[in-house]
Specification:
Structural class of chain A: alpha+beta
Number of domains of chain A: 2
Largest sheet of chain B: 2 strands, antiparallel
CATH architecture of the largest domain in chain A: 3-Layer(aba) Sandwich
GO cellular component, one term (chain A): maltose transport complex
Keywords (chain A): ATP-binding, Nucleotide-binding, Transport
Strand order of the largest sheet of chain A: 6-7-8-3-9-10
CATH topology of chain B: MetI-like fold
Family (chain A): Belongs to the ABC transporter superfamily.
Shape of chain B: globular
Distance between the termini of chain B: 25 Å
Strand content of chain A: 25-35%
Helix content of chain A: 25-40%
CATH superfamily of the largest domain in chain A: P-loop containing nucleotide triphosphate hydrolases
Distance between the termini of chain A: 39 Å
Oligomer: heterodimer
GO molecular function (chain A): ABC-type maltose transporter activity; ATP binding; ATP hydrolysis activity
Largest sheet of chain A: 6 strands, mixed
CATH topology of the largest domain in chain A: Rossmann fold
Protein name (chain A): Sorbitol ABC transporter ATP-binding protein /mannitol ABC transporter ATP-binding protein
Largest interface: A-B, 24 and 17 residues
């Protein structure tokens, strides 16, 4: 069981308030991702839950029990660190056994759980190696193995994939998602990469400067961002945000339209522009289109291969039902 | 990449230094070797003659030699034990955040900059003196009999003085090692449920192993040749209770004017030091690889 409740949790380092009072509930078995730009307090929030930082104010409850002042080891949580934090002088086996040894489990039980974890994570052949002899992805798996064997109430991940190369990252992302499906344990995952957030999460928490900007499922955030920040942060490539007279036409201060919701035509449309840079990905082509009167070029997605190049004139039409409107405070205007 | 040409010129340019070093080492060494086979007493100048291994026989059968050998070992091991254990404890203490950290760290390093003769004099006259010393005053204030450190426990006292000098060195090296420990490892072990003492034992101590090796290696080299502290405080006495090999050789050659015997002792000391060095390198030098 791993239901984590934050009740008006506040964190200040000296005079600097990193996290203003914040409420959040993480349901049992949920995969929750904290996402936000660097320095938004997402790692601090995770460390508060882990108990590695003291809460300045408020209460943390794990399974309805007050855990605010419990030491990290007593909270029943396991953490995977960004640097993996493996013990370099111990073999993989000893690394994985360490938390069980500290908990005083019997030798047979330790062996059983190590074998099970090693099998689940494809580490069986590496059990007697030292972390220094492993690749980044293998180290990552050892760190996860060390977390699994404790059978924690919840897993905490602190940007676990940021030290891996792009291909490995996609693989590990899948493995962690599968692990979550299999164990059905609560997982709290911190990342600055919104793609990771979108692909893995049951629930995304978007943070900025310690504030929760929005909480919701990936598609909720994608379809109905609560404000300009979330709109710009979620989705890849970024949503086009347009201000000025064009926005006022739609009765808003800012309007947003995703690259995939713009229709491309060479003949006619609402906005006329000139193609700048184009990025060909094979399945998609992204054009950066300069439109007169718009401050920034718009990003547009065209499916497949399109035979347009630099300097060509292009017509764009926003898909009206996917147009997002925001008021002067940056908040979403309901349709 | 070094071409043949540049390698040639590199060798050419480095050769003066190499030759100087070689001369610096080889000339005294060969002279010592040469003297050790002579009957050479400064009181009888011009009477030198070749005596074969007589000097060695006298030196190695001298009861003072075994006492000195034992004292040397006790001194080295004693100081190593105190400085390594004390250094770890001090490093752990100094690693904690506290007010005035910078100043305290400088103060801790300070004894290392005091010359051995000076610190030995300070210890002898201001601390260990049975009449005027601080320890004597403290003992009297507690109603105890003052303890005459340098005559009742000469070797232990010298171990104390030398340890005081080398503790900063050990502390400094171990402190930097401790600070290079990845904080996430400590946090991970904390999450894994290890209390402080186990974190120290399973995480910190293995991390310090390499630095401890360095401390032991460097200190052993210097501790084998402790001299000034003994000369200033006990003069090797009472009897031979605080004479180490270095001091015995000094006595032989400069107090008894027996240059031949002293040189033989010197050669024996060189051989012993090399045996120790080989063992140290074999046993713990492995830690320095990888």
């Amino acid at each position: 069981m791993g239901r984590i409740t934050l009740d008006k949790v506040r964190k200040a380092f000296g005079d600097v308030e990193v996290i203003p009072p914040l409420d959040l509930t993480i349901e049992d078995g949920e995969f929750v991702v904290f996402v936000g730009p660097s320095g938004c307090g997402k790692s601090t929030l995770l460390r508060l839950i882990a108990g590695l930082e003291d809460v300045s104010d408020g209460q943390i409850r794990i399974d309805r029990q007050d855990a605010t002042n419990l030491p990290p080891a007593k909270r029943g949580l396991a953490m995977v660190f960004q640097s993996y934090a493996l013990y370099p002088h111990m073999s993989v086996r000893k690394n994985i056994a360490f938390p069980m040894k500290m908990a005083g489990l019997s030798q047979e039980e330790q062996e059983r759980r190590i074998e099970a974890a090693a099998k689940a994570l494809n580490l069986t052949d590496y059990l007697d190696r030292k972390p220094g002899q492993l690749s980044g992805g293998q180290r990552q798996r050892v760190a996860i193995g060390r977390a699994i064997v404790r059978e924690p109430a919840a897993f905490l991940f602190d940007e676990p994939l940021s030290n891996l190369d792009a291909a490995l990252r996609v693989g590990m992302r899948l493995e962690i998602s599968e692990l979550h499906k299999r164990l059905a344990t609560t997982m709290v995952y911190v990342t600055h990469d919104q793609v990771e957030a979108m692909t893995m999460a049951d629930k995304i928490v978007v943070l900025r400067a310690g504030h929760i900007e929005q909480v919701g499922s990936p598609l909720e955030l994608y379809n109905t961002p609560r404000n300009v920040f979330v709109a710009g942060f979620i989705g890849s490539p970024k949503m086009n945000l347009i201000t000025g007279p064009e926005a006022e036409k739609h009765g808003a201060t800012t309007i947003g339209i995703r690259p995939e919701h713009l229709e491309v035509s060479t003949g006619s449309g609402e906005w006329k522009g000139v193609i700048g840079v184009s990025e060909h990905l094979g399945s998609d082509t992204f054009f950066h289109v300069n439109i007169e009167g718009f401050g920034e070029p718009l990003t547009v997605r065209a499916s497949g291969e399109v035979s347009l190049t630099y300097g060509d004139t292009i017509w764009l039409t926003p898909n009206a039902s996917n147009l997002h409107r925001f008021d002067a405070e940056g908040l979403r205007i309901a349709d | 990449m070094a071409t043949k040409h540049s390698r040639m010129s590199a060798r050419l340019m480095i050769s003066p230094a190499v030759l100087l070093l070689l001369g610096w080492m080889l000339i005294p060494l060969s002279m010592t070797l040469y003297f050790s086979f002579l009957r050479y007493n400064l009181l009888m100048p011009g009477m030198e003659e070749f005596t074969g291994l007589t000097n060695y026989r006298y030196f190695l059968t001298d009861p003072a030699f075994f006492a000195a050998l034992w004292n040397t070992i006790a001194l080295v091991l004693g100081v190593l034990a105190v400085t390594v254990v004390g250094g770890i404890l001090l490093a752990l203490l100094l690693d904690q955040p506290f007010f005035g950290q910078g100043i305290v760290r400088i103060l801790v390093i300070a004894p290392f900059f005091v010359m051995p003769t000076v610190s030995a004099l300070v210890w002898k006259n201001m601390f260990m003196n049975p009449v005027n010393g601080l320890f004597a005053h403290a003992a009297k204030a507690l109603g105890l009999q003052p303890f005459d450190f340098l005559s009742s426990a000469p070797l232990a006292s010298i171990i104390g003085i030398v340890s005081w000098q080398w503790l900063p060195f050990a502390t400094l090296i171990l402190l930097t090692a401790l600070q290079s420990l990845d904080q996430e490892q400590l946090e991970a072990s904390e999450m894994d449920g290890a209390p402080w003492i186990k974190r120290f034992w399973y995480i910190m101590l293995p991390h310090l192993a390499r630095s401890i090796t360095v401390v032991i290696l460097i200190q052993t080299i210097f501790l084998l040749s402790v001299f000034a502290e003994i000369l200033v405080t006990t003069n090797g006495g009472p009897g031979t209770a605080s004479t180490n090999l270095t001091y015995l050789i000094y006595m032989q050659s400069l107090l008894q004017f027996d240059v031949g015997g002293g040189s033989a002792g010197g050669v024996v000391a060189i051989i012993l030091a090399n045996i120790v060095a080989i063992f140290l390198m074999r046993m713990i030098g492995k830690n320095l690889d990888a």
